[in-house]
């Protein structure tokens, strides 16, 4: 189906784009594809641009004049190939805060990168579907629409709640979506394709909290985490033997924000490799009976991790902040006649939901808490990439459905109705 100007937004004639901005990364790609074209860290390196003054800008002693210095601009480093290079005076900043876009100047740099380096096509050729958190404010929604229509000249635009899209990705229009992401975990009821914002529940226990717990765990074990960038070479050593490595000579002026970001990535790798969720409430004796997982640190030190890898994740199921409690709170906040359908369609997504044992633990804890009158059913895609990218995949599906094409806000509609179109067409 074509849009108001005769353009086939979601079909083969024009490629609609799906953007899924999150706290950890931004996923972007074409509708109808199975996975995003790129998964880009949601941080940007900001540093001084290298400036070579013209001859007329120099004073007799060769120094740069004040006027020449004023012409200097900041340079932005986006994606891992640029971000992970040690650069003097490069600060690492994020454009996200509390699950929504907060620094719009930085986010524009990210969109510039997406169109020029990832999509490699003019923005005015592609309708853009964006995901959003259920608690996104009205000014933030309006700012995004303004940016896409007025700067990027998008032919059409649409906003959808990420929980709704995660449900769609799992083949459901009604579900209770548990999103375990980087900055938080949330439980959001979705009924007939609409997210019930008033019933949503969330807590700050997410991937970032796990990384902090990993840092504390290793410190208590007297294991020093060295960032990968600081190692030039390392020797092969026996298990638990003191690391022997040659440090890399680094440039002066590395910022604290960059060093902390790189160290955090290392803790995230440790969690991704080692962490596992216990089937029941953590018991050291039971955890000790499970085979350990070997991990080698950047400096070469390596050892097996046993019960501590289960203890690391126990915080995710904390009594009043954990995912099971959020599900119960969200379901209880809905009308009684909707609860049965929600308990029968608990859908999990997000990067933390990929942690080994997480889904099984959620199912067991919910089985113990669910009202006896309701039949509990939990589900999540078996592939980890589908759990991580659930909202993006849902957007890809939605934007390619023929009946959806009349839902886009066209540039003509925006010109005529302004930002008010958002509340009318994207509730």
Automatic annotation (TrEMBL):
Recorded superkingdom: Eukaryota
The name this protein goes by in its record: (African queen) hypothetical protein
Classification of source organism: Eukaryota, Metazoa, Ecdysozoa, Arthropoda, Hexapoda
Coiled-coil blocks: none
SUPFAM superfamilies, sorted: Actin-like ATPase domain (SSF53067)
Species this protein is from: Danaus chrysippus (African queen)
Family classification: Belongs to the actin family.
